[in-house]
Amino acid sequence: MKDNAISIRIIDPKDIFSIVPLLQQLGNNTVAEPVIKERLLEMVEQNYECLGIFDAEKLIGTCGLWFQTRHYAGKSVEMDHVIIDDAYRGHGVGKKLVEFVSDYAKKKSCNWVELNSYVHNFPSHKFFYNQGFVAKGYHFVKEV
């Protein structure tokens, strides 16, 4: 991996299915591929953008971005499904991604970058703390 070969850019909504193999690496393969694709099509119609992380032209990572206005933060972006291929972890790619998202958020007049991390994913907690994130609360879910 050459550092100068790594690039980050917005994935065109017409190419959104290119991230499906990476989504399937999340370890939560309970959602069938047709459902994932249906949901992705719905997402690109909402306040959602998707970043691709590339080594030359090979997609090695992805990160969704949800833009919203929150009463406590004003305009913010939430990083979603941050995935970097295992072979590229520990090489500064994640740091590059956080820097890109932070700069992009500023350009879009966001005050905050937010994200969720599974409670058992201790390596990601350490990584995000090291990137300047702080834990502000818990994300609760209830299936209905």
Description:
The chain has 144 residues and is of the alpha+beta class. It has a single domain (3-130), classed as Aminopeptidase. The protein is 27% helix and 28% strand. It has helices at residues 20-23, 33-43, 93-107, 122-130; strands spanning 6-10, 48-55, 58-70, 74-84, 112-115. The longest helix is centred in the last third of the chain and has 15 residues, at 93-107. The N and C termini lie far apart (44 Å).
> How is the biggest beta sheet arranged?
5 strands, mixed
Roughly what fraction of the amino acids lie in strands?
25-35%
Order of strands in the sheet with most strands: 1-2-3-4-5
Q: Under CATH, the topology is which?
A: Aminopeptidase
The stretches of 5 or more residues where confidence is low (pLDDT under 50) are none
How many domains? The number is: 1
Look at the structure and give the mean pLDDT: 92
The name of the CATH architecture is 3-Layer(aba) Sandwich
